[in-house]
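FORM 7B: Structural annotation worksheet

SECTION A. Query
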Amino acid sequence: MLALRYVYVLALVAWLGGMIVLGVLVAPTTFEVLQSAAPGTGRALAGDLFGTTIARFHYVEYGAGALLLLSLLGMRLLGPRPAAFGVRAAIIAAMLAAAVYSGFVVLGRMDGIQQETGGVASSLPASDPRRIRFDELHRLSTNLMLLNIAGALLLVYWEARDDR
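SECTION B. Predicted structure
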């Protein structure tokens, strides 16, 4: 049971910590440094760099989500049923679904717009439908990550309570 719980906590920490580091440190720092270093091309380069980083991080999310579900199920089958098992499993499944949707659908559509516009959708006029759509997709991606952060924080709460 200890090994399963360790895997569960480790996967949760990797997922939650990764989201926080990306959103709070990596994204703003990447855009700030590259835009100031190369005012003409820095934003496009920062977008490419962060886009690639977040695309790769989605694989961490998929792995963490699978480990969370499998270890939670293992704890249920091999020991006393974890507190709020059904709710926790539903939260993990919803988080994983949001990550898969964000990684495959949302980022795919954003990449398509970037390719169509030659790199930087934010350089298009504010009224351009492609920029409007890109901004909507960016907000959706951000909201999906915030949803996953909220879910992960709730799961951390259950672990902190430790009332199995």
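SECTION C. Observations
Residues 42-78 form the longest helix (37 residues). Helices lie at 2-37, 42-78, 85-117, 129-161.

SECTION D. Sign-off
Analyst initials: ____
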